[in-house]
Structure formats: C-alpha cells, structure tokens
TrEMBL record, chain A:
It holds the Pfam family Nitr_red_bet_C. Residues 534-592 are annotated as: Disordered. The keyword NADP does not apply. One of its GO terms (cellular component) is nitrate reductase complex. It is found in: Cell envelope. One of its GO terms (biological process) is anaerobic respiration. The lineage of its organism: Bacteria, Bacillati, Actinomycetota, Actinomycetes, Micrococcales. One of its GO terms (molecular function) is electron transfer activity. The keyword 4Fe-4S applies. Gene3D superfamilies: 3.30.70.20, nitrate reductase domain like. This is Nitrate reductase subunit beta. It comes from the Bacteria. Its cofactor is [4Fe-4S] cluster; [3Fe-4S] cluster. It comes from Ornithinimicrobium tianjinense.
Automatic annotation (TrEMBL), chain B:
In the central section; belongs to the NarJ/NarW family. In the C-terminal section; belongs to the nitrate reductase gamma subunit family. Keywords: Cell membrane, Electron transport, Heme, Iron, Membrane, Metal-binding, Nitrate assimilation, Oxidoreductase, Transmembrane, Transmembrane helix, Transport. This is Nitrate reductase-like protein NarX. Heme b 2 binds at residue 187. Its cofactor is Mo-bis(molybdopterin guanine dinucleotide); heme b. Residues 3-224 form the NarG-like domain. Pfam families: Nitrate_red_gam. It is a multi-pass membrane protein. Its main location: membrane. One of its GO terms (cellular component) is plasma membrane. It is found in: Cell membrane.
C-alpha cells in the first residue's frame, strides 16, 4: 500500500443554474492575458450539447485518454512514445482555434470618433487572433440553454445510441448544466503525453501542473487530455491548464470557482488513495467496472491501518484528520452519490459529479403528479430511460445501474425530508428502500442542501514548516518584487520571455483573505490603494471604497465581534472609524 | 581578410553559439519553446513541417558524414571517391529537396495565413532569411557544383571538410577556404552567421529534442519543494535572497 493524498472536488449538478460565475471569476483570476483569450480553465456546458471545444468527447475523432490493449495494458489512444516522437513536428490531432472559437473584441473607437452622421455608428467585431474584422459564428457557449439545439445539440457525442429517442422539441427535451475544470486525474494522460516531462502530479496534494520553464510547446498534452482541459497559450508557446488554484489551496481556502459559486454546489476535500493500485484499476477490462474500480482505489481514512500507512508515507496528521472530514469522501464513498466524469477514458478523474435529478422531477411536475412522492419519483426514474441513459453515458461509461441508484437516493432524500419539513412523522422505510439509515440520509441532506461553507470545503493548509516556500504567504522580502516592476514588459524573445515577463501568480496576500473569510465578525474588505476587489468580497460587511466616505461613516463600522476575533483591517481605520487618508493599510503592512 | 573570414569569424560565432545558449537557458527558460503556430493553421503545417524537419534531419546527417568523417577513413574502407559521391548525392538530394519544399510551404503559410503572419516577429523574419539563404546555397553547391559540375569540379572533402575539422583542434588553415568556390564560401560564412544567431532565435528548440521521453515513466510525480534554492511557482528566487540552508 502506498498512500497518497489527492485534493478532489465534487459538484452537485442539481444545484447548477448555469450562471457561469465560476467561469468568469476563474477567467479573471487566471486567463485574462494575451494568448489565453480562448482559454477557459473552468467552463459550463449545457447538456445535451457539444461542449467546449466542440465535440471534445468524441475520442474516435480527438484520440484523447487511454485505451486498453488486448493484453490488458494501457496505451495512449493517440499513440505511444515512438509514435509521439515521429509526429512531433506537427501534431496530427490537435484542435484548431476554430474548434474552440476565434476570440474577438469590438472596434469601440469608431463609436467615439465617428463624425455626426445619419446612421448610428457600429462597433464591429475584430478578431484577437488576426486583428481583422470577423463575422462571429461560434463561441464558448454558443449552444447555451439548448440554443440552436436542433442543429448543434444533436451532434453531442454522448447521444450515441440514444439519439433517435431524444427530442429537441421545446417542452419535450431535458437539459442540465455541466461545469468542468481539469480533472486532476490519478492517471493523467496529459502528463503521459508530454515529451518534455513538464506536466507533473504533485506528490503532496495530487494537483496536476505544467512546469512553464520545462514546457517546450510540443502540444501533445492538448491531444492527450480527453477532457481537452490543457490549452496552448499561443503567445508564449506553452501549455497551460487549471491549477486547482494551488496558491489558494495551499493556505486552506477553496478555489476561485468554488468560492464564487452562487449555487454552492462545489465540494472540496481530500481523498486518500493507494497509488500502487491505480494502474490496475485503470486497466480493468469492462468499461462498466471502471467506476467501481476507481472507488476501490480510495482508502478509508477512518481505518487505523490506512492511517498508519498514511503516516508512514509522510502525510501530516492534520491532513489525515481533514481526510476523515472530507465531504468528497462522504459523497463518493459513504453515500455513493457522486460519479466520475467519463471513467471510460481510463484517466481516473478526480472531479466527480452528483447527477441531476431535476430532469426527472421536471417531467413529473409537468404531468401534474406529486414530484416529491417517493413512488412517483422511483417509477419515473425507471420509466424515463432517456435522461438516465444520457447521464450514464456521461458518468458511468453507459452503465445505467449506478446512475439509477444515485437518482433513487436523491429522490428518497427528497421525499424523506419533505415529511420532516411538513412536520409529519419521518418514514424510516424511505431511506431503507435505498439502503441508507435515517441518520445517514439526514446527514446527506445537511451536506447537500444546507451545505455550510465549513462542510463544503475541508482544505488542510500546506505545512507550516514549509510555509516560506508557499506562493501565497509572501514571506520573502517586500522589496524583492521591485525589479519585476522595472522589467514588467516582455524580454527580447517574444511574449513572456526573460525574467520580467512572468507575473507572479499571487497578486494579493491570501493569508489575509483567509483570515477575513473565516472571521466571525463583520469585517470590511481591505482596500489596496483605492482599488476595490469585489472578487474577494464574501458578502459580509461593505468593502471599503465601494462608496465614497460619508460624514456618517461610523454607521457602517464593523458590528461588534463575537468573541475575541479582531477585525483584520483595523489599521485601515482611524480612531473615529474613518478610513485613513492614505488608505494603504492592509496592502503592505498586513501579516506577512 | 581571409584570416578574419575563415579563422576569427567562425570562432566568434561558435563562442556566441555556446555562451549564448548557456546564457539563454539561464535567463530565459520560459521563452525556450518551439513557438508553434499550429493552433492557427494545421492543414499546410501538416505537410510542410514534417517535410522540412525530416529533410533537415537528413541534411544534418549528411553534413556530419561529409564534414566530420575524413576522406582518408572512407579511402581506407575501400570506398572509392565516385561511389562516395553517388551515395552522398542519393541521400543528400532527396533530403535537400524535402527541406527546400517544406521550407517553401512553411514560408508561404507564414506569409499568407493572417494569424500566423501577425505572430511572426522581426527576429523570426531575419532568421528565416538567413536559414533560407544557407539552404539555397547548400542546394546550389550540391546541384551545380557536384551534380552538373558548373564551374569545374570541387571536392569539398579536400578543402571545406579539413578546414571545418581543424576549427575544433584550434588549427584552422584559412587557405583551404580561400581556394573553395564562392558558393561554398558563402554557404560556410552564412552558416556560421546562423550559428551566432541561433541562441537568440526560436531555433533553440532543436536542443530540446525530447529524447528522454522514450525512457522516462509516463506519469511524473514531483514534490512541492523539489527545486532546492528556488521558490515554488513561477517566480524564481531573486539573487541575494537565497534561503539559508
């Protein structure tokens, strides 16, 4: 047994309203740079639909992930090592920018500079790739909410085999949203495809990262990833991918996408797994067994033998404690309601999904029957083959049984909790019918429906004795960034070359953020020289600087704290509660 | 003048080549990439790029045989001068044609495909001009000099090759190159110029040929702290701020 820890995520699709807040905040945080205009580390797809890039799930076309050879070994679908080296001068299966979309801006200048004329001036779209005027024909969410679905969604690769049964007539179809980030797989095929060895899996938390100094731009990872979550930065010539916001995770706060999720549908926690068993589990013969096989790789953190082995493997004690409390462990292994996305790619993905019950509920509601009645729901799950088969194509390589089980659990929870909410006697027979106890069902309800911040995110910070090396703690000398400012522009070899071209991933001191977010008091957001960062606003209190100071600024001073927690930004206030005129406190003088 | 052209200049260029690469690797690992434009355009690249690169691999191999292996060795092996030339031309001309055709496709693509053209820097253009000239002159020398023998026959293995080898034991004889035809002189001169430009262009990607991929395990695991003396993340530690211990 070789115990390793993996930072994992579960998303509850029933709660996703497709608002794209996660995508936007992620983009603002990570990919709002030249060369990454088309890059969405996080994107939200409407299903049925094509996804992003278009039709990425069709592996006969894109050749991502692993396949099992006849002798039971795993092989990269796009070809092995020699094959890769022979095709290195031009990747035979790389999506072009047209498969994503051509990013554009608008010619706003005409609006400002146009002379007085009869017709209103128009800002025409301009390609950010070629600089020429373009006709916008596709974008990241062109088929959002089933828009144009009769033309587009019908091409969804996951409709294979059930296409003739799915109707895209209004009121006869179903849909849900699928937010996607990098899967941070246990058996990542992007890393295996990288000729330079630049993509690596971190030993401590399993986050898959691209070493930007080692990447040489061979682009094999783009093909290798079946989820198409490695992108090629066309300005720097390097591969980039979702980082699981590792600088935030290292100090114990959730990823940007999770933090800003309006529906609170994301769960982050640790999974312990047996690294020696990964390859074996990924190579099981029957695709339908992959879901169970992957679950068998996970180790129960409550098992003393596992704890001992984990300690021996150098996993710190507080990490083992966090693994015990991990919501991800509960959803995947205790309640068994979370399923992996496309296990058939054999990469052992670590971002799992609770399939949505809502397509089923919606249908019952439309027929006028009680959509919270257990028997109605159970019958509908059995009768409504199409949504269930479709979900199975996504989450269990087409095996309907596990999806059915999950949906029945969600349906049971729905009707069990309704009795409690209406003050009726809870029926123990409902949890029993799906193999759960009443306590378990109630705990699952608390985790899924109440979903408190501290329950959703159990993230042990990286270790203090290593803290000086963490990106976000910023313990190095405050003037060490000074020369960066001088060489802010790029070096002589193009975008991003030279030392100056690289912007450190951390712009703010996240330790402060974490304190603010975990404090029980109402604390105003710290301001950085007049900037207001709403991205980090937790909704409590009012960010300083959002509105101009009024004479009665004292009215908005933080409410008295509970207990002994001190407002973090105190130095930003003068004695009478007014902001200091220079308004710089909290920017540089914060805890370092 | 000939001492400068055929002794001093090559050494300057080689010095820049070596020191330049060391410096660039230290200073600019992040900029060390192929700068691929496949994302913009794939169809022409799929034909042009392998044609050019495999052609160039053949050309480089041919140069190695022609320049590094002395004539005395092939003579001793019983390979006649004529037989050697037939072999050299049989290997060299297809490789050369592949490289030229590939380069032509790639340059055409670079000029006509909008996004690719706008991603082309001045640095690239100068490099392509020199590279194209070197290749054109090399083809001219092979076809006109060896195949059609325009302007008399010249055995480069008596002139250019010994001079090239002498560079590496620091005894170059400039008169060997003085006697070479103009085509060979220009080819050699521009080739050294290209060597001098090499570390400062995208050509550095030649030295990241990922041969280690054949033997390394598929999945790379790395510890967060595994680069001693360097902070985690994208930012390198600043000089003078190294950690203690």
């Amino acid at each position: 047994m070789r115990v390793m820890a993996q930072m994992a995520m579960v998303m509850n699709l029933d709660k996703c309203i497709g608002c794209h807040t996660c995508s936007v905040t992620c983009k603002q945080a990570w990919t709002n740079r030249q060369g990454t205009e088309y890059v969405w580390f996080n994107n939200v797809e409407t299903r049925p639909g094509l996804g992003y890039p278009r039709g990425y799930e069709d592996q006969d076309e894109w050749r991502g992930g692993w396949i099992r050879t006849d002798n039971g070994r795993l092989k990269l679908r796009a070809g092995g090592r020699l094959n890769k080296l022979l095709t290195i001068f031009s990747n035979p299966k790389m999506p072009s920018i047209q498969d994503y979309y051509e990013p554009w801006t608008y010619d706003y200048e005409t609006l400002l500079n146009a002379p007085a004329q009869e017709t209103f001036p128009v800002a025409r779209p301009q390609s950010l790739i070629s600089g020429k005027q373009i006709n916008i024909e596709w974008s990241a969410n062109w088929d959002d909410d089933l828009g144009g679905s009769r033309e587009h969604a019908a091409k969804d690769p996951m409709l294979k085999g059930i296409a003739d049964k799915v109707k895209f007539e209004f009121e006869q179809t179903f849909m849900f949203y699928l937010p996607r980030i990098c899967e941070h797989c246990l058996n990542p095929s992007c890393a295996a495809s990288c000729p330079s060895g630049a993509i690596y899996k971190r030993e401590e938390d399993g986050i898959v990262l691209v070493d930007q100094d080692k990447c040489r731009g061979w682009r094999m990872c783009v093909t290798g990833c079946p989820y198409k979550k490695v992108y090629f930065n066309h300005k720097t010539g390097k591969a980039e991918k979702c980082t699981f916001c590792y600088p935030r995770i290292e100090v114990g706060i959730p990823t940007v996408c999770a933090e800003t999720c309006v529906g609170r549908l994301r769960y982050i926690g640790l999974m312990l797994y047996d690294a020696d068993k990964v390859l074996e589990a990924a190579s099981v013969e029957d695709e339908h067994d992959l879901y169970e096989a992957q679950r068998s790789v996970f180790l129960d953190p409550h098992d003393p033998a596992v704890q001992r082995e984990a300690e021996r493997a150098g996993i710190p004690g507080d990490w083992i404690e966090a693994a015990k409390k991990s919501p991800v462990w509960r959803l995947i292994s205790e309640y068994k309601v979370a399923l992996p996305l496309h296990p058939e790619y054999r990469t052992m993905p670590m971002v799992w999904y609770i399939p949505p019950l809502s397509p089923v509920v919606d249908v019952i509601k439309d027929t006028g029957f009680d959509a919270e009645d257990k028997d109605n729901l159970f019958a509908a799950i059995d009768a409504l083959r199409i949504p269930v088969e479709y979900l199975a194509n996504l989450f269990t390589a087409g095996d309907v049984r596990p999806v059915n089980d999950v949906l029945r659990k969600l349906a049971a929870m729905r009707s069990y909790m309704r009795d409690i909410n209406l003050g009726r006697d809870p029926q123990a027979s409902i949890p029993e019918s799906v193999g759960m106890t009443e306590e378990e069902m109630y705990e699952m309800f608390r985790l899924l429906a109440i979903a408190k911040y501290s329950d959703r995110y159990v993230i042990p910070p990286a270790h203090g004795e290593q803290a000086h090396a963490l990106e976000e703690l910023a313990t190095d000398c405050p003037v060490s960034g000074f020369d960066d400012e001088i060489f802010e522009t790029s070096g002589p070899f193009g975008e991003g070359s030279g030392r100056g071209g690289v912007t450190p991933v951390a712009v703010e001191n996240l330790k402060m953020l974490q304190q603010r977010q975990t404090a029980d008091t109402l604390v105003a957001g710290g301001s950085k020289r007049g900037r207001v960062n709403l991205l980090n606003w937790d909704g409590r209190g009012m960010p300083k600087g959002l509105f101009p100071d009024r004479a009665s600024a004292g009215d908005q001073a933080p409410a008295p704290g509970r207990g002994d927690t001190e407002p973090v930004d105190d130095p930003a206030l003068l004695d009478d509660g007014q902001a200091r005129p220079d308004n710089t406190a909290g920017a540089d003088g914060g805890p370092r | 003048m000939s001492t400068f052209l055929w002794v001093i200049f090559p050494y300057i260029c080689l010095a820049i080549f070596v020191v330049g690469h060391v410096w660039r690797y230290q200073y600019d690992k992040f900029g060390w990439t192929t700068r691929s434009s496949q994302l913009y355009e794939s169809r022409l690249l799929r034909i042009g790029s392998p044609l050019f690169h495999f052609g160039m691999l053949g050309v480089v191999l041919g140069h190695f045989i022609g320049l590094v292996i002395p004539q005395s060795l092939t003579d001793r092996l019983g390979l006649s001068h004529e037989a050697y030339h037939v072999i050299a031309l049989a290997g060299g001309i297809p490789a050369g044609i592949a490289a030229v055709v590939g380069l032509a496709i790639l340059v055409y693509r670079r000029r006509t495909v909008g996004p690719v053209f706008s991603a082309t820097t001045v640095n690239d253009k100068v490099m392509y001009a020199v590279l194209g000239l070197v290749i054109a002159l090399g083809m001219w020398n092979t076809i006109a000099g060896s195949l059609l023998t325009i302007g008399g026959e010249y055995n480069y293995r008596d002139g250019v090759s010994p001079w090239f080898r002498q560079i590496f034991w620091f005894q170059p004889d400039a008169t060997l190159m003085e006697d070479a035809p103009l085509g060979f002189q220009l080819h050699a001169f521009l080739a050294f110029l290209l060597f001098a430009m090499w570390p400062f262009t995208r050509l550095v990607h030649v030295f990241s040929a990922p041969l280690g991929y054949v033997t390394r395990p598929y999945i790379v695991y790395r510890s967060r702290d595994d680069r001693p003396g360097v902070a985690t993340g994208t930012r390198a530690q600043k000089r003078g701020w190294e950690r203690v211990g």
